[in-house]
Inverse folding.
């Protein structure tokens, strides 16, 4: 069995389809974590990924997105 990890950086992320991808992931994480978050934290997280919010972060020059993909090859 072998395992390899790859860091995936989405730059430039200003492209619409990349923003949708990041926003979709953020909403999924928020929904899964909601039972463990305060209502204030949940709303803050949503505001970060809402283009209508003044706290929207995807257009910020300081925003950086990277995820880790892991490929495992083996036999059962």
């Amino acid at each position: 069995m072998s395992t390899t990890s790859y860091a995936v950086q989405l730059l430039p992320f200003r492209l619409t389809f990349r923003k949708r991808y990041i926003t979709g992931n953020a909403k999924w994480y928020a929904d899964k974590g909601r039972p463990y978050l305060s209502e204030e934290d949940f709303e803050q997280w949503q505001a970060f990924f809402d283009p209508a919010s003044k706290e929207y972060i995807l257009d910020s020059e300081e925003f950086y997105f990277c995820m880790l993909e892991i490929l495992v090859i083996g036999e059962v």
